[in-house]
Amino acid sequence: QQQVKQSPQSLIVQKGGISIINCAYENTAFDYFPWYQQFPGKGPALLIAIRPDVSEKKEGRFTISFNKSAKQFSLHIMDSQPGDSATYFCAASTKAAGNKLTFGGGTRVLVKP
Amino acid sequence: NAGVTQTPKFQVLKTGQSMTLQCAQDMNHNSMYWYRQDPGMGLRLIYYSASEGTTDKGEVPNGYNVSRLNKREFSLRLESAAPSQTSVYFCASSRNPQGGTDTQYFGPGTRLTVL
Lengths: 113, 115
Description:
- The complex is a heterodimer.
- By secondary structure, chain A is mainly beta.
- In chain A, about 0% of the residues lie in helices and about 50% in strands.
- Chain A is built from no helices and 11 strands.
- Chain A has strands spanning about 5, 10-15, 20-25, 35-40, 45-50, 55-60, 60-65, 70-75, 85-90, 100-105, 105-110.
- In chain A, the strands form 2 sheets. In chain A, strands 2, 4, 5, 9, 10 and 11 form a 6-stranded mixed beta sheet that branches. In chain A, strands 1-3-8-7-6 form a 5-stranded antiparallel beta sheet, with no helix packed on it.
- Chain B is mostly beta strands.
- In chain B, strand 4 and strand 5 (about 40-50) form a beta hairpin.
- Chains A and B meet through strand 5 and strand 10 of A and strand 5, strand 9 and strand 10 of B.
């Protein structure tokens, strides 16, 4: 059973467009929600993260929106660029469980020039 | 700093063979992790080591064993490989799982095929 569900599995966006990836979780004990970016042939790398005491966090063109009551969070990539083409994973963890990450299934994003 | 290194990069095994995947980190991190990545499944935790001298099972430990050799090194062993273990394996490390937020740093992965 997947505790973090991610959608869509893939998406194609034109250069300059907005990419939106959604995640839903079940465990209300989760207290840290990172997003990882993975390029082909590489390991994942932390992109941006949020804690549940804020509803939004922005870093450059990347924004996380968090809805605690709905147990959902999303990643928005503004002004998408071809260099953003990668697989994105949402994840969640709880300090009580030693900060082990539970990952979503991943979204492959292709930005067309 | 090399970060997290993994060897080998690629491996092909026959069913029933054994092998050990090696992982090392040079960031003086306390915690280390082994994940497998399968299409549509994200990354699933196999085993982790919160600190030197401790190891614990993750979500999918069956068919695997681990050894935390020292603070730098964490190996994953397949005793009798099965086709279901065909996957990409990632090692990761982090500074401290007990306090505050904790970023995991991933290695480049090992692509394993079991025939």
